[in-house]
Amino acid sequence: MVTGAVAACLVAVVALFMLVNSMSNRYDGILTGTVQAGQDARAMQVAFKKQVQEWKDILLRGSDPADLQKYTQQFKAQEATVQDLAARLDTQVTDPNISAEIQKFRDQHSALGGKYQSAYDAFIASKGSDYKAADAAVKGQDRAPTDLIDKIVADLHAQQLRLVADQERQVRQEQVIIVVVGAALIAGLLTGLHFASRGIVRPVVRATSVLSEVAAGNLTVSMDGTYDGEFNAIKESINTAVDDLNTGLARVVAGADRISETSRFVETVGDQLIHSAQVTRASLDAIEQAVRRIDPTVGPPSLAYQLGEVRRALAAMASISDRNVRTAEDARRSTDELRANSDNLQRVVAAYKLKPAPAAERWVTGPIRAIAAVGAKAP
After folding, report:
1. Is 360 exposed, middle or buried (0-12, 13-18, 19+ CB in 10 A)?
2. Cα 297 to Cα 289, 293, 306, distances in angstroms
3. Residue among 180, 321, 342 nearest 256 (CA)
């Protein structure tokens, strides 16, 4: 789901980029086409008016050779500028009506140029004195080109306004599209983030809950559910750790139980050894008292020696019996300490809630309990 949302967002971003790029290209087309054509038309309009003004300066000041040369050069320069601008304008305009007007202006301007040249030649022939005849030769000839160029400028301006209006209308439409696509993009992102957050939050919450239970001593819990990627690895790691901890503590419990049972068995055996040693010592004491009551003088000469050997043997046996009693008592104390430690360990582990121990581990302590029970019944 998240991958699909990201892919949809990328597609939407690309579409918006293409739309904005299209808008930019259209504006560039207006700026480099119609706007530039309008500027060239106005420049041509100004240049033509300057050309007409230069002609008037020729007639008014042409009697002076220096002024004649100056204004003639300026007249020719403006005439060339008008021709160049008209030629360039003809390549920029795509409207057939305006193109026809430009061509018509070029024809009129070319014809007017011929008339200006004829009038100029007549003016030069009069050595600059007959300016009236030169002026009469071209009088009113510039009105038609002037009106036509004014119309070209006005038509280009109107075309520019239409294109701008059309562009503004398209921009408004595309703005609606951008808003809709942007809203869809935001909705897609929010949806993707929602599912992504759920995919992240759910396993984190579950893992936190399991670890909290483990910290509280409950080792029967596990992290269930189906997760993707790293979260599945986290799930497996937590479950493995809990199982290992549960198994380890279960073995500790089983070991402590076995130690406790064994210590009870050893304690029972020790009690029996102490009792046997005490009985043996009492028997030895009784035998020694009986030996002491025998009169060595009433028997053979070797009787005294034999009685002495018997007493020494009884003393050695009594010493051994005493050592056995002390050894059994030491073993009893060690066993008591071992059982106390085992009981403490069991109390510590009892704070944890473990899973049921496997049958094999429960079976191990069975023989030890049986032996301890038999030992407890022994006299």
Report:
1. exposed
2. 17, 12, 12
3. 342
Name the 3-class secondary structure at 351: coil
CB 30 within 8 A of CB 185: no
**How many CB atoms within 10 Å of residue 169?**
10
What pLDDT sits at residue 144? 93
Rounded to an integer, what distance in angstroms lies between the CA atom of residue 195 and that of residue 182?
20
Give bridge partners of residue 218 from the DSSP assignment. 353
Termini Cα distance of the chain? 79
Domains of the chain plus CATH, in order, are 2-197 (1.20.120.230), 230-377 (no CATH)
Within a 10 A sphere around the Cβ of 88, how many other Cβ atoms? 14
Beta bridge partner(s), residue 353: 218
Model confidence over 34-67: pLDDT tens digits?
A: 889 999 999 999 999 999 999 999 999 998 999 9
DSSP string over 44-79: HHHHHHHHHHHHHHHHHHTTSHHHHHHHHHHHHHHH
CA dihedral 165, 167, 171, 174 (to 10 degrees): 130
CA 379 remoteness from chain centre: 78
- 192 neighbors 1 (Cβ within 8 angstroms): yes
Q: Is the pLDDT of residue 365 over 60?
A: no
Tokens of 294: 């025998």
